[in-house]
Amino acid sequence: MHHQGEPPDPAARRLGDVVPPPTPYARTYRIREITVVELRGEIDLGSAEQVDIHLEAAALRRGPLLVVLDLGRLEFIDCFGLSLLVRTRRRIIERGGRIRMVCAHPPTRRLLSLTGLDGVFHPVRTLDQALEE
User: Candidates 3.30.470.20, 3.30.750.24, 3.60.20.10, 3.90.700.10; correct CATH number of 15-132?
Assistant: First the structure.
């Protein structure tokens, strides 16, 4: 069994079986059976690879699939970053899972509204709210 902070079990072959190591732009952790992907800093083409590994691992996780995207520490996201979030949502939904989003940052909420993605992700303001729904 893999515990946060320990190296992943070498027998775990699927990306969804392990929690990727933190990067400057993303970290993944679990609360109960919920996978939380916390995004931080600036998410754009330059940081995409370091973010995508966390999003992909969350979307491929075995068992009941509930993922929370926590944008609480996000400073900036461009259209490429938004496309990563949309693709992750699609993967999770296709596997019968559910996704929630936390976002209280006014510029990011405005971008979600302008792109119509607030109606897709229905962001809440706190992690506690996302975990309770």
Answer: 3.30.750.24
